[in-house]
Amino acid sequence: MDPIEALEEIAFLLERDRASAFKSKAFRKAAGIIGEYSAAELAERVRDGRLKRTAGIGDTTFTVIAEAVGGETPGYLVALREKSGPAAGRAPTGLRAKLRGDLHSHTDWSDGTTPISTMARAAELVGLEYLVVSDHSPNLTIANGLSVERLLDQLDVLDRLNRDGADRGIRLLSGIEVDILLDGSLDQEPEMLDRLDVVVASIHSKLRTESKELTERMLRAVRNPRTNVLGHCTGRLVEGARGTRPQSTFDAKAVFDACAEHDVAVEINSRPERQDPPDDLIQLALEAGCRFSIDSDAHAPGHFSFLELGAARAEANGVPAERIVNTWPVEQLLDWAAAR
Predict the structure, then answer these.
(1) Which residues pair with 105 in a beta bridge?
(2) pLDDT tens, 43-93?
(3) For residue 106, what is the DSSP state?
(4) Whole-model pTM?
(5) What range does the domain containing 294 cover?
(6) Quick one: 285 and 162 in the same domain?
(7) Contact, 202 vs 179, CB < 8 A?
(8) List of E strands, 76-189
(9) Pair (142, 248) in one structural domain
(10) What would the pLDDT profile of 280-303 be if each residue is shown by its tens digit?
(11) Which DSSP symbol is given to 241?
(12) Looking at residue 247, what DSSP letter applies?
């Protein structure tokens, strides 16, 4: 087995299972190190012990590499596949099979763990045709949000990756998860937001604000013509390492009516710890006539597998595929986003 592929699949499976990010980073770091060697040089370094003494190669990663170089499927990878299935599992079915893209993902430009190119390969692995890179905006300093200057740099990188990977099966779209500030404005220069393909607007602060005030904050953001998607609208956490957090209180009917009026999609966030919005609010948004976007909110390559959970929730709640914007071909998606 190719040792780099083995290391990257192990990292993907660890991320999918929400293991410690330190574990998956160790395998990805090792893959980057050995990528500098030819197959013959790598085999020689394994044989003479130099690889084991290389900074960034630990006992576990060395064993994986040595077994792969020796023609075996590494035992560590075998165990992970037996536990939860391979990275490229069975073909998706139902609503998940209709998802063409993901409008909400993060890279190491903000608080994601890997470069854009690695996220793109993983999104293609799970069958997506397009991926919106939506790193955080400046106000979220804890997540290394992008200033205007850094966002401009990222746009150049996306253009280059699309040119260089024109023969790939996935297209990278420019985007942002822009913070909805306390006054309901969006945390990025309007001129920059105009340049992006897709804008996801989310609240990350003061989630316990009184209902009327929070409702007005959300309504102003939804009415902003640059907003395409309302991200994880209640902010709740139902499980996971960060603990739990109750959903915020706001006039959901008023917010969803505004989403329908202004053609802003309501995000069905696929992260297991979010499951946001809850089922009763999905039903309310359906009744209001809203469109939806089923997104992974991926911060690592393995998180794209979460789309299965989001699709299952949408299906259970009777959300029709035609009202889910990321079931559309990319040009239709871009026309819809630009129309605002």
Answers:
(1) 298
(2) 999 999 999 999 999 999 999 999 999 999 999 999 999 998 888 767 889
(3) -
(4) 0.93
(5) 94-339
(6) yes
(7) yes
(8) 101-102, 130-133, 171-179
(9) yes
(10) 999 999 999 999 999 999 999 999
(11) T
(12) P
